[in-house]
Amino acid sequence: xxxxxxxxxxxxxxxxxxxxxxxxxxxxxxxxxxxxxxxxxxxxxxxxxxxxxxxxxxxxxxxxxxxxxxxxxxxxxxxxxxxxxxxxxxxxxxxxxxxxxxxxxxxxxxxxxxxxxxxxxxxxxxxxxxxxxxxxxxxxxxxxxxxxxxxxxxxxxxxxxxxxxxxxxxxxxxxxxxxxxxxxxxxxxxxxxxxxxxxxxxxxxxxxxxxxxxxxxxxxxxxxxxxxxxxxxxxxxxxxxxxxxxxxxxxxxxxxxxxxxxxxxxxxxxxxxxxxxxxxxxxxxxxxxxxxxxxxxxxxxxxxxxxxxxxxxxxxxxxxxxxxxxxxxxxxxxxxxxxxxxxxxxxxxxxxxxxxxxxxxxxxxxxxxxxxxxxxxxxxxxxxxxxxxxxxxxxxxxxxxxxxxxxxxxxxxxxxxxxxxxxxxxxxxxxxxxxxxxxxxxxxxxxxxxxxxxxxxxxxxxxxxxxxxxxxxxxxxxxxxxxxxxxxxxxxx
Length: 493
Description:
- With 493 residues, this protein is an alpha+beta fold.
- The chain contains ten helices and 15 strands.
- It is globular.
C-alpha cells in the first residue's frame, strides 16, 4: 500500500503542530533572537527600514520584527520569534512614485530581499541577494539557487567561486545589482514573490543586457512590463465549468434553470453563468491549434494542442495510440532538474521499459516534446499545481469507458489519462512538490507531492503522496509512483 495522506489528514497533522507538547516556559522570559547585517544596494537610501518577513509576502507588514538601518546600511533585528533567522530579510526602498489608484502603483515602496540563511550576523541585502531570494521563493534551496544563478552568470563570462551569498558585492556584479534593484522598483503588481521569482529566472533572457552595463529607464520598464505579463498569464482564472443547478423536484438529475428555492448555486455566478433555458456558459475559452500552433476552427476534428485563451497557456493534446510517445496513459518517473532526480525503481516501471525506448522520466519527455517543436513551441514543461487545477471542468458530463466523468473539457481534450497503477483517478504529473508535510514513516530521500484527481467523483480531490527521489536506497524500498504527463507551454514564447 502506497503512503498517502488526504486533505483531512494533512489538516489534522498541521493542527497538531500547534499543540501544547513543548516545554513549559511560563516561569521564565521567552528567549530572544537577533539577526543583523548590512544593506549594500547601490542608489538606494541605506537608512531603510529592514524587516524579517514572517508571513513571506515580500513586504514589511505592521507587527513584523524590524529596525531602521544606520547611515552605513547596518541593521540589527531582535525578536522572540526564532523564525527571523530563516525567513527572508527585506529592505524597504522608496520607488519615487506616490502610491495611488491611477498610477497603477500598488505602493510607493519596493522591497529588495535576502533569503533566510540561519545566520545571526553577516547578512547582506542588495540586488544580487534578491535574485537568490527569488529562487528560494520559487521553492529552491539556497544551494540550488546558487547553482542556477552561477549558470546564468556563466553565460556572460562571469565566474564566482564559492557561494554567491558570500560575494554579493563583487565588482563584476555591480551592473546586474543596480539593474535588478531598478527593475524591482518598476514592478507595479503586489504579487511580489512571483515577480521576484520571475526576475531571477529570466533576467538573462531580457533583450537588454542585465550584466554588461547599467540600463536606462526604458529598458528596465520594458522588462518589468514583460514580467507583469507573465504574472497575468500565470494567474488568469477560468471558472468551474458548472452549468446546471440542483433541484428538489428531481435530485437525481440537475437542471438548466436557476432554482429560487436553492439560491446562490455555482452556475449563477462568474463566467459559467448561463442564459435561461440554455445549457451554455463561458467558463473556459479554448481554441484548437494545428501542429504549427495556428488556430483552427472550433469544429476541427484533428488538432495538436489547445490554447487556453484566458490564461495564455498552451496544452499538449494526447492520443489513444499505445505506440505513441504521446499516449494518454504512458507512465513516467518524476524528474525535475535541480529539484528531483528520478528514482531507479520508478524508472524501471515506466512505459519505456516495455516499449524499448529511452523516454522514461518526465524530463526525458519534456526534452523530446521540445525537440520536435510541438505546435511550434520549444518551452514545454510540466504544469504547476495551479495551472493544471485551472483547467479542471467540474461540469463535464462525458464519461470514459469506466463510467467516470472526465475532468477536462472533453470537446478539446478527448484523450484523458486514467492515472497510475496505484491510483486510477486521472492523475498526471505536475510540479507540486511540498515540504511542509511530515510523517514519522517518511523514507529518507522521499518527499510529498500534491496529486490532483481528475475523474468522476475524484475531480479536484487532492491527496499528498510520498514520492521517492534518486536519493532513496532502492535496496530497502519498492517503487513509489509513476504517472502520465500532460505538458504546458506559454503563448508567444
